[in-house]
Amino acid sequence: MRNSPTVVYIHGFNSSPASFKAQRLRRAWLQLGLPEEHLLIPKLHHHPKQALAQLQEAIAQLGQPVLIGSSLGGFYATYLAEQYHLKALLINPAVAPQHLFDGFSAEQENLYSGERWQLTDSHLQSLAALEVAAPADAQRFCVWLQSGDETLDYCLAEQYYHGCAVQIEQGGDHSFQRFTEHLPALFTFVGVAPSALQSLNLSALE
Known about the structure:
Blueprint: E1 7-10, H1 20-31, E2 39-40, H2 48-62, E3 66-70, H3 72-84, E4 88-91, E5 107-109, E6 116-118, H4 121-129, E7 141-146, H5 154-160, E8 165-169, H6 183-190, H7 194-197
Parallel strand pairs: 1-2, 1-3, 3-4, 4-7, 7-8
Antiparallel strand pairs: 5-6
């Protein structure tokens, strides 16, 4: 497909490419007939330094992709969008996630792979190093928040991304309920032509 958009989807903390949103996005992408190689969903390492290297490699592979980041993935996406001047759509993004773990060190388990790993000060220091000022070019960012997020305080993201296109839905949760219904808006942000979206059958994705 000519002029097909390219996307890197960035999953969240202890998540994976097998997550609901990642898989629903992939299925919709293929349903639209978009090139499979134009959508990358890396399985990220738990350490921020290694995860960042994986994401930089994905960006290099695709050139100027649109970033879609969920939770901690939204934090990574913000850093990378500022570094590479990319567009980013953020779903319940984490803000300054290192503070969520202040003074906390414990064994973690990936929700999908079952991999166990130890959260250390090295993780927190690496996260802190990725913190950037609020986006100056707000037009490149679209932020989706749900007030019922039980993991992150959506108000922190609302304040941090002030001036960006911030959409706040009442209720919901951290997983971002009704994600499938938002796929047309996601693809519009990514750059899929409205005429191409007419073939998107959301009910077939259930």
